[in-house]
Amino acid sequence: MYSSLKATDIHYTLLSDSHLKAAKAFHIAYHLDGATLAKQREYGVDLERTTGTKRHELPVPSVFIIDTSGTIRFVYSNPDYTVRLGADALWARLHRSRR
């Protein structure tokens, strides 16, 4: 799926937001309630160990295309983590954003 992306000349910056400051600014952070946190534990997910905090917050899976002037050109965000933006759709949108 990603082999076509690796074969191209794409330059981008990958950022980390371990304290969810950007996620909160972009309004994509959410707090897990007790029932959801318990369900995560049943599946073997230790959110506190993974994130290193006791805040029980996660970002909604999202994609942002931001141009060199800082203008957001595209946003894809879906609270259903099982629905992701496909590489082909992202690639097409990236090309439209460059025009």
Draw up the topology in text:
Layout: H1 3-6, H2 21-25, E1 29-31, H3 34-42, H4 47-51, E2 57-59, E3 62-66, E4 72-77, H5 87-97
Antiparallel strand pairs: 1-2, 3-4
Strand content: 15-25%
Q: What strand order characterises the main sheet?
A: 1-2
The first-to-last residue Cα distance is: 25 Å
Number of domains: 1
What is the share of helical residues? Answer: 25-40%
Order of helices and strands: HHEHHEEEH
Radius of gyration using CA atoms only? 16 Å
Alpha plus pi helix count: 5
Q: How does the helix and strand content classify structurally?
A: alpha+beta
| Net shape | elongated
The profile of the biggest β sheet is: 2 strands, antiparallel
List keywords for this structure.
99 residues, alpha+beta, two-stranded antiparallel ribbon, two-stranded antiparallel sheet, 4 strands
Task: Characterise the protein shown here.
The strands form 2 sheets. A two-stranded antiparallel ribbon has the order 1-2. Strands 3-4 form a two-stranded antiparallel sheet. The protein has helices spanning 3-6, 21-25, 34-42, 47-51, 87-97, and strands at 29-31, 57-59, 62-66, 72-77. The model has no long low-confidence stretch (mean pLDDT 85). The two termini are 25 Å apart. Helix content is 34%, strand content 17%. The protein is elongated and about 45 Å long. It is built from 5 helices and 4 strands. It has 99 residues and is an alpha+beta fold. It has one domain (3-97).
